[in-house]
């Protein structure tokens, strides 16, 4: 059995309510150091609210959230902020500042939180953009000039700016075509391996689950119904899980995994480079 001590994130007994709606009730979840954990569930089951709770943007009605050895509910503001700076977050819509260039977007946290000079921050931003697979010329562009896939990569570069321990990704492949999504999946694994990240990934994308997740947590009925390796999750006796994993899309993703042909994808590349096929 996994104890809170084995976990980089340990959520215990969390309840979240909005008015009369209870989204989570006594929810427990463990995330192990170095894993890619996929979080799935029907629409409105509270995946994004759970992510927001773990990163401290949503105060639960009750329960505790231990992250990186600290209890976010009881720490003072300074200690809490030190832990929160070790998070990198990629929100669902990328959330870049539209009035700043891509490089300025990535440099901003380095100036604000790491106290770097503008020159140093923009130099380091170039490194982060390359790490996220963007070409050097992308830094000078405005977010509106980028393709959908490049916006995701720019937002990822910003999430990596402060060398996080944990990367939180909310629907990172939503809106990407299958080849762009497969390239993004590979990038996440490459970065996890190279940087020793732990990845908390909210997704609806079955191909992503099969391709990169070490374990999958399913949210249902206000709790984590199961959190296990994907084969064990797919075998769980639950109507939503059976429909999701063994419906037509689930079968296709499983076949792609077992035939080593994820999506309609190009050959994997060793270095993370932007894929020209990403949606524009
Ligand atoms: N700030 C808020 N105020 C009121 N209700 C909220 C708020 N945030 C989320 N909710 C509600 O909480 C529930 C869970 O929302 P959440 O966004 O976490 O779902 P989700 O599982 O991520 O859904 P999806 O897969 O559709 O993105 C929804 O019913 C949503 O309307």
Plain-language structure description:
This protein is of the alpha/beta class and 280 residues long. The protein folds into two domains: 176 residues, 3-Layer(aba) Sandwich (Rossmann fold), CATH 3.40.50.300; 67 residues. The protein has ten helices and ten strands. Strands 6-7-8-3-9-10 form a six-stranded mixed sheet, sandwiched between helices. It has a four-stranded antiparallel sheet with strand order 2-1-4-5, with helices on one face. Helix 4 packs across helix 5 and helix 6 packs parallel to helix 7. The C terminus is likely disordered. Adenosine-5'-triphosphate binds next to helix 1.
Q: What is the CATH topology of the largest domain?
A: Rossmann fold
Give the spatial strand order of the biggest sheet.
6-7-8-3-9-10
Based on helices, strands and strand pairing, what is the structural class? alpha/beta
The count of DSSP E runs of length 2 or more, i.e. the number of strands, is 10
N-to-C SSE string, H for helix and E for strand? EEEHEEHEHHHEHEHEEHHH
Specify the CATH homologous superfamily of the largest domain: P-loop containing nucleotide triphosphate hydrolases
What hetero molecules are bound to the protein chains? adenosine-5'-triphosphate
The main β sheet shows up as:
6 strands, mixed
Q: Termini separation (Å)?
A: 46 Å
CATH-scheme architecture of the largest domain: 3-Layer(aba) Sandwich
Region (Disordered): 252-280
GO molecular function, one term: ATP hydrolysis activity
Organism: Pigmentiphaga litoralis
Biased composition (Low complexity): 256-280
């Amino acid at each position: 059995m996994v104890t809170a001590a084995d976990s980089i994130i340990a959520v215990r007994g969390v309840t979240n309510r909005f008015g009369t709606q209870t989204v989570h009730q006594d929810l427990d979840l463990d995330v192990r150091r170095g894993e890619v954990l996929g979080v799935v569930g029907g629409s409105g089951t509270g995946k994004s609210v759970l992510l927001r709770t773990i990163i401290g943007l949503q105060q639960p009605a009750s329960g505790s959230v231990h992250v990186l050895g600290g209890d976010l509910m009881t720490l003072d503001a300074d200690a809490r902020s030190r832990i929160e700076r070790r998070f990198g977050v990629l929100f669902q819509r990328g959330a870049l500042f539209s009035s700043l260039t891509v490089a300025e977007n990535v440099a901003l946290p380095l100036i604000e939180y790491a106290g770097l000079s503008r020159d140093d921050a923009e130099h380091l931003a170039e490194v982060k953009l390359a790490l996220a697979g963007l070409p050097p010329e992308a830094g000078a562009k405005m977010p509106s000039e980028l393709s959908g896939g490049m916006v995701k990569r720019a937002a990822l570069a910003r999430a990596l700016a402060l060398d996080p321990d944990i990367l939180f990704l909310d629907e990172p492949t939503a809106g990407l075509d299958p080849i762009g999504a497969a390239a993004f999946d590979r990038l996440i694994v490459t970065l996890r391996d190279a940087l020793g990240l732990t990845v908390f990934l909210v997704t609806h994308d079955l191909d992503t689950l099969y391709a990169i997740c070490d374990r999958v947590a399913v949210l249902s009925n206000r709790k984590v119904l199961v959190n296990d390796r994907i084969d064990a999750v797919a075998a769980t006796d639950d109507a939503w899980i059976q429909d999701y994993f063994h419906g037509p899309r689930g079968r296709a993703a499983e076949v792609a995994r077992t035939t080593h042909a994820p999506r309609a994808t190009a050959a994997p590349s060793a270095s993370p480079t932007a894929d020209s096929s990403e949606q524009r």
